[in-house]
Write a structure and sequence with these properties.
The complex is a heterodimer of chains A (171) and B (152).
Chain A (H helix, E strand, L loop, with lengths): L6 H12 L8 H9 L3 H14 L2 E8 L8 E7 L6 H10 L5 E4 L11 E7 L2 H14 L7 E11 L17
Helix pairs in contact in A: 2-3
Chain B lengths: L4 H10 L9 H9 L3 H13 L3 E8 L1 H4 L1 E7 L6 H9 L4 E7 L5 E7 L2 H15 L4 E3 L3 E4 L11
Helix pairs in contact in B: 2-3
The chains are: A alpha+beta (171), B alpha+beta (152).
Amino acid sequence: MTALLDDLQTLQLRRLLEAGLPLVARPYQLLAERIGASEEAVLDQVRRWNDSGLFRRMGLVIKHRALGFRANAMLVMDIPDEIVDAVGQRLGRAAGINLCYQRPRRLPDWPYNLFCMVHGREREQVCQLIAALLAEQGLSDVPHQLLFSTRAFKQCGGRYAPPAMPVAAHG
Amino acid sequence: MQIDALSRRLIDRFQHGMPLCAEPYRAMAEALDCSEAEVLACLEALEHGGGLSRVGPVFEHSRAGASTLVALAVPEARLESVAALINSYPEVNHNYLREHRYNLWFVVTGPDQAHVEALLARIEAETGLTPLDLPMRAAYRIDLGFPIGDAP
């Protein structure tokens, strides 16, 4: 019978997980020590979160720019509302698209409602891929723009847990 | 950064999922037929080289709390100071400079919608710039990482 984490420990664990697992042989043991719980209780909670769909995925989170994928374009398009779902689903399945979301327009400043992310090593290669994709999907005439990123000021995971939760000092 | 063969195998194999057990790095090592020490050394090197953000969960933001994509049109002369201010908020991740009149793009996350909206109001008050608030309406493809087998 495993002791469950209390509410405070559960929140503390979530916050610690947002920063990633420590690179030690028994990372859950180390997290457990920091919140005053057992390794087993921590692992149980993480498994429950994983099973419940709180995690989109669990694994290595890489920084693509540092690994040579320096050409990162956000393709934004203005797609009529009646067909945006269908177009989004088609683009979401297309090779080379890493992410495809619908977002609201903010007129008059921002007329685009469909966002795709494309990563590549060279800018020219990304431009060609996107031009080919738009042609193939019959979208070449749709109003669109390519926003290349030229600098990453910050790249880390989201912090969802409420701030200012006390966590025991490391070690 | 240069990445070696083991780094590539680790990234391609364990970006989408990893063993959820007491000794995950040992389990990764067994799957790749190398030692746990090699896996840990490799991950540390990747982290120090700036190629690894972390190992662990990526939260599903619709379940984990509230989030939105935000853009600011920052005058060139103020770019460094506004970017530094935006970076200073723990709720902000993925802050990028992009080629557009709206040149600063970042994601804001928080425990709930009210928290996110309060931060947007604070950003507007502190910068005098009106944020473009672009929450996700539908996801057609989510970021699951991508193969880096042919990375330089």
